[in-house]
Amino acid sequence: MAEKAIEAKKKGQKKSSEDYTYVGMVFHRLTRHKLAMVGAFMLIFILLFVFVGPLIWRIDPNTQIEGLNGLFNPASHAHPMGTDDYGRDVLARMFFGGRISLFIGFLSAMTSTLLGAVVGLVAGYYGGWADNTLMRFTDAM
User: Fold this and answer.
1) What is the spatial distance between Cα 7 and Cα 116, in angstroms, rounded to a whole number?
2) In 3D, which of 47, 44, 50 has the Cα closest to residue 93?
3) Confidence at 2, pLDDT banded by 50, 70, 90
4) What angle is formed at CA 112 by the lines to CA 109 and CA 117, rounded to 5 degrees?
5) How buried is 83 (Cβ within 10 angstroms: 0-12 exposed, 13-18 middle, 19+ buried)?
6) What are the transmembrane regions (predicted)?
7) pLDDT tens digits for 23-42?
8) pLDDT, tens only, 106-136
9) Angle at which helices 34-56 and 90-126 pack, to 10 degrees?
């Protein structure tokens, strides 16, 4: 019986669910879902943009171009996305602003997860009126 299974694998037949580890099965299902892959590539692009971009583009986001010729400049070789109304490079500001936005999003997600877990634990442990009160409060939120 085992010899037939080995021969079947050698012939190039598809793997069964028993051949995958749990992580392998999750990764396989994720790669088969096209919309999930689009989202994963977008997330990877954003992370690379905000963390690797400042290493390549070494302009300080707060440096202002002196004089009136630096205000509201359109895209150029020196400033690919132009400058703002204070003469600061828009691309450099996007790099550093993206870091702050990702940090705030991650922090708020972790805070809401922690708060939800605590409320769920208290509601589950005490039950009864505490559960009903906490769930109505959660519904109102």
Assistant:
1) 51
2) 50
3) low
4) 125
5) buried
6) 35-57, 100-126
7) 999 999 999 999 999 999 99
8) 999 999 999 999 999 999 999 999 999 999 9
9) 130
Please state, in angstroms and rounded to a whole number, the distance separating the CA atoms of residues 81 and 72. 10
Question: How many beta carbons lie within 10 A of that of residue 92, not counting itself?
Answer: 21
Contacts of 79 (CB under 8 A, 6+ apart): 73, 89, 90, 91
pLDDT reported for residue 71: 80
For residue 66, what are its two tokens? Answer: 């002196």
Tokens 């109505």 belong to residue? 136
Say which amino acid occupies 10. Answer: K
Both tokens assigned to 132: 């009903």
